[in-house]
Design a protein that fits this description.
By secondary structure, the protein is an alpha/beta fold. It is built from 16 helices and 21 strands.
Length: 471
């Protein structure tokens, strides 16, 4: 099995029942719904289609709702796209106007009050650069430093400028309620600046009667400054290299990627590496060699999950992009095993909790007895995630009575999720495990597995037992 998981962004080219089924069959472990684009009703329909396809194939798929967040965007043009030429004057205005070659509106009314002359403004992920000449009323008069084609609703970045934007917009709050009602498995928060932003979202999730995990998208310079606190308060993080690469010099991104992944792994948190992994496959049937190396390096760095964005949402080759990413993962993981005979782990056993000690010991025990799997029993998924962070060589098969936990587990490195009704007696539990392993995973009599579980069996949140079990 591939240990590193694949997250696919679902969009116009991949939201049909047929393509969703092929994506799941092709190795998609989780689906991302980007609420920056599309109508809420369309996303709700897509959630239902993903669940139906996953049930039909008997394979769990996690669904991530990616909230739009307080992203500043330009408005629409009367004729899109336009071309901005170096040296030309271009105006960003708070007035609601139809854009043209000389002016376009922005969706943040207070921008003209916050911006200063000589400030840099970047459009369309940094492809277009403007320099502020002066501010006249609600108009920001700029000079084009780097030109190019510009189309509707492209993003606006202001490196080094902190604006008084809400953590959650009214749209985010409305979308979040829809997502929780639809049963999404994770919520990703865009443009996180500090740990307080996560707490704001968590309070809103709690108000809606849910405890869905939160993934903090790291895409601002302030997020990097507050990295340790953000990781500690989040359930997972995403290395969102697109906006991060606009906010910071490109030469800093590779090192930051390694630092973020390492910190998240040491903290026992889920970590996703995202953006432009196979970007050329949006229009080409093959990736560049540099992109293949980028995917492999994200695995060597210790990512739990790799994400495809435009490649599977609007690209010409969504299934081929997924297939190639899968092949790179398989080849890279084989190389790791060949070179090291085990997967490197960033997590150190430095905690007093019994669960951490059990998971740490499970990796060692599995290697010493040549176990075919580590079998974990978990209510919330926490034990399975902790075990995966020690990067054991055999797969982790996680049994849970909770269907949503089974879906969330789909994002955990090296973990396969299975549902099992609660069992009161250990002998009965072992008999059921034996039957499942033989029927579903082709284990044979005499195979060894390392069991990690809690006693008493019915007690929630306890992992205190390791057992080497021979079928």
């Amino acid at each position: 099995m591939e240990r590193t998981k694949i997250l696919c962004t679902i969009g116009p080219v991949s939201s049909s029942p047929g393509v969703l089924k092929k994506l799941i069959q092709g190795g998609m472990d989780a689906a991302r719904l980007n609420f920056s684009h599309g109508e809420p009703e369309e996303h709700l329909k897509t959630v239902k289609l993903i669940r139906k396809a996953a049930r039909g194939l008997g394979q769990p798929v996690a669904i991530i709702q990616d909230l739009a967040g307080p992203k500043i965007r330009i408005g629409r043009f009367a004729q899109s796209p336009i071309t901005l030429r170096r040296g030309a004057e271009f105006i960003l205005t708070a007035k609601q106007v139809m854009g043209d070659q000389f002016k376009v509106s922005v969706n943040y009314p207070g921008l003209y009050q916050a911006i200063k002359p000589k400030a840099r403004i970047l459009l369309d992920d940094g492809n277009i650069a403007l320099s502020v000449v002066r501010v006249e009323g609600e108009d920001i008069i700029c000079r084009v430093i780097t030109g190019g084609m510009l189309s509707d609703h492209k993003g606006v970045n202001l490196p080094g400028c902190r604006l008084k934007l809400p953590v959650l917009t009214n749209k985010d709050i409305s979308d979040l309620a829809l997502g929780i009602k639809a049963g999404v498995d994770y919520v990703a928060l865009s443009f996180v600046h500090e740990a307080r932003d996560i707490l704001v979202l968590r309070r809103e999730i709690k108000r809606l009667g849910s405890n869905v995990p939160i993934i903090a998208k790291l895409e601002t310079a302030l997020a990097i400054k507050n990295l340790t606190q953000i990781i500690s308060i989040s359930d997972g993080v995403m290395v969102a290299r697109g906006d991060l690469g606009v906010e910071l010099p490109p030469e800093r991104i590779p090192g930051l990627q390694k630092e973020i992944i390492s910190q998240a792994n040491r903290a026992g948190k889920l970590v996703i590496t995202a953006t432009q992994m196979l970007e050329s496959m949006v229009i080409n049937p093959r990736p560049t060699r540099a992109e293949a190396s980028d995917v492999a390096n994200a695995i060597y760095d210790g990512s739990d999950v790799l994400m495809l964005s435009a490649e599977t949402s609007i690209g010409a080759y969504p299934l081929k992009a997924l297939s190639i990413m899968n092949r790179i993962i398989k080849s890279t993981e084989r190389n790791i095993l060949k070179l090291n005979a085990d997967f490197p782990t960033f997590k150190r056993f430095d905690k007093a909790e019994s669960a951490d000690a059990i998971c740490h010991a499970a990796r060692t025990a599995a290697a010493q007895v040549n176990a075919r799997a580590i079998v974990a029993f978990t209510q919330s998924g926490a034990t399975a995630l902790a075990a995966s962070k020690y990067r054991p060589k055999p797969p982790i098969i996680a049994f849970t009575p909770n269907e949503q936990t089974k879906q969330r587990i789909s994002l955990y490195w090296g973990v396969l999720g299975e549902t099992m009704e609660p069992v009161g007696q250990l002998d009965e539990l072992l008999a059921k495990v034996r039957q499942r392993l033989i029927e579903n995973y082709h284990f044979r009599s005499g195979d060894k597995v390392v069991l990690i579980l809690g006693l008493p069996l019915a007690e929630h949140g306890v992992t205190n037992l390791l057992n080497i079990y021979q079928l």
